[in-house]
Write a structure and sequence with these properties.
It is a single chain. Helix content is 29%, strand content 28%. The chain is α+β, with helices and mostly antiparallel strands. The chain is built from four helices and seven strands; from the N terminus they run ααβββαββββα.
């Protein structure tokens, strides 16, 4: 039995030694947030925010969600922070209290935090998860993740700056019919 075990180890050892060690940081998708936002603008009813954080926050996804599951269509971006944490951005013009609770995972409101010249509602678990919520220019913006508050504040300031450059959101369009004689 010992001989069989040694033969298995000797057979497996070259395979392990021939595999190269990973190089670099691994795969980082190149996400063009501005281009994806331009595509989403027509269906969103508002101009999605595209925070410019330079090379500090790396977007790893950007997408328009039609809201088929939640009933609330959203613009979403995921960011990897400089300290290798995650912050997700969600924006909608059709927020409701239930949706906000879902987005913030029912975290309790623990105060406010000024970022980008706006007062954001802070929701904090006291552990790793936290969220910041802002109702601004006709949309609700939720930042959620595991990053520290200083990284949240940096991203929130970039979000406000982007939102200020966009026209205010209009009310969601409703279908109307007119009878032609």
């Amino acid at each position: 039995m010992v001989i069989a075990l040694l033969l298995c180890v000797l057979a497996f050892l070259p395979i392990v030694l021939m595999n190269p060690a990973p190089k670099g940081e691994g795969f980082r998708p190149d996400v063009d947030v501005a281009a994806i936002a331009r595509n989403a603008t027509g269906v969103a009813g508002f101009t999605p925010v595209t925070p410019d954080t330079g090379d500090t926050f790396k977007p790893n996804y950007a997408r328009w969600e039609s809201g088929t599951g939640s009933g609330v269509p959203t613009w979403e971006i995921g960011f990897l922070t400089p300290k290798e944490n995650f912050i997700g951005l969600t924006q909608t013009s059709q927020a409701n209290p239930t949706w906000v609770l879902q987005q913030t995972e029912n975290l309790p409101v623990t105060g406010t935090r000024n970022a980008g010249g706006q007062e954001w509602e802070l929701r904090d678990s006291g552990k790793e998860k936290r969220s910041m919520v802002l109702e601004y220019r006709g949309t609700t913006i939720v930042l959620s993740g595991t990053a520290k508050l200083d990284e949240f504040a940096t991203l929130a300031a970039a979000v406000v700056k982007s939102a200020e450059q966009a026209p205010p959101a209009s009310a969601p369009a409703t279908a109307t019919s007119s009878a032609q004689p």
